[in-house]
Amino acid sequence: MRASLLQIDVNEAESVDARRQRVAALVREQAGADLVVLPELWTTGAFAYEGFGAEAEPLEGPTYEVMAKAASDAGVWLHAGSIPERTASDSGSAAGEGPLGPLYNTSLVFSPSGELAAAYRKIHRFGFDKGEAVLMGAGAELVTVRLPQTVVGVATCYDLRFPELFRGLVDAGAETFVIPAGWPERRRSHWTLLAQARAVENQAFVLACGTAGTHAGVPQAGHSIVVDPWGEVLAEAGSGEEVLTVDFDPAKVATTREQFPALKDRLLGLAAPRR
Description:
By secondary structure, the protein is of the alpha/beta class. It has one domain (2-262): Carbon-nitrogen hydrolase (Nitrilase/N-carbamoyl-D-aminoacid amidohydrolase). The longest helix has 15 residues, at 188-202. It has helices spanning 16-28, 52-55, 62-74, 132-135, 163-171, 188-202, 251-259; strands at residues 2-7, 35-37, 77-86, 103-110, 116-121, 143-146, 151-154, 176-180, 205-209, 214-215, 218-219, 225-227, 233-236, 242-247. A six-stranded mixed beta sheet has the order 5-4-3-2-1-14. It has a six-stranded mixed beta sheet with strand order 6-7-8-9-12-13, with helices on one face. 46% of the residues are buried. Helix 6 links the parallel strand 8 and strand 9 (205-209).
């Protein structure tokens, strides 16, 4: 299986519309890949909180339309990163209204025909008492997508710090985790460490795609990474804009879980047995 992670430079001098078209062209260049992955909030910048309200769009808005066509043109599965989504019921609200706000950090996954295969609203919002944690609502559902080669579990950025989410995805059948992010440079060591930890503890592949550049004065880590079920780093990007392409064998998940069946020894967090 071939995956291409597009580590996009979110340059504040570039308009959102121009970036959409540029990224769509990059997606089309990945024809021949099985899966293409974009970063979190690459239209606005993950730390550009003040722009979330102005750039928020409905699920089937301009980013949806451009990315659906790009996926279809390239004939690839496309995790199109995430967008600041404004739901129809909140379309008249202003960003920041209420304790959580009317927005969601929503990931879109498209099939090679350009159909929407899944949408995931980020569960864990970063910022503590400001930023995303205040402006956006929390998702409530785990999401998996069945590709021909593997079952993908979807998570976003800060989710990486919460292992119980990934255990839930494993229980739902996930073999490969795809994690778009806007991770800051000052915590880059955590990014690498946590990506490897989630791979090892769940005996799964991790495909974690970050952004380059600077969002609202916050330098981004870059260093998108692909990790195998034993924790081995198969490929890692640098700090600038880059296309990271890697070939990997999804069958290694089943082999690893058979050779070293640690998941079978779980005692905590399992559903109570039926009587």
